[in-house]
Design a protein that fits this description.
Layout: H1 3-11, H2 15-40, H3 45-52, H4 56-64, H5 71-80
Helix pairs in contact: 2-4, 3-4, 3-5
């Protein structure tokens, strides 16, 4: 195990740090899912943004660095691609300390 991995594992023992990491990863997953959906529909960011009534820079930001993402924005984007939004709450699979 590298020094970085040992350091990271120690940091994950801190609940606040772990929650922050999980929040960031969730945002990145949403951005990746949005990009995949858009590509499946063969839409550019500009085309999806126009359909959703927003700037293409906003679509790019959501796909690449989602922050403070609102459910309403996701719904607009999904509807613009003729899709629905589905939210799930799977079990975490780890022990909270």
């Amino acid at each position: 195990m590298t020094r970085w991995n040992r350091y990271y594992q120690r940091q994950l023992e801190d609940r606040k740090f772990k929650a922050l990491i999980e929040q960031e990863l969730a945002g990145l997953r949403i951005g990746a899912q949005l990009a995949a959906m858009r590509e499946e529909e063969k839409l550019t960011q500009t085309q999806l943004a126009a359909r959703a009534g927003m700037a293409s820079s906003k679509v790019s930001a959501i796909e690449n660095q989602p922050q403070n993402l609102e459910l309403g924005t996701l719904i607009k984007l999904a509807h613009a691609a003729r899709r629905k939004v589905k939210v799930t709450f799977p079990k975490a699979g780890y022990n909270d300390k």
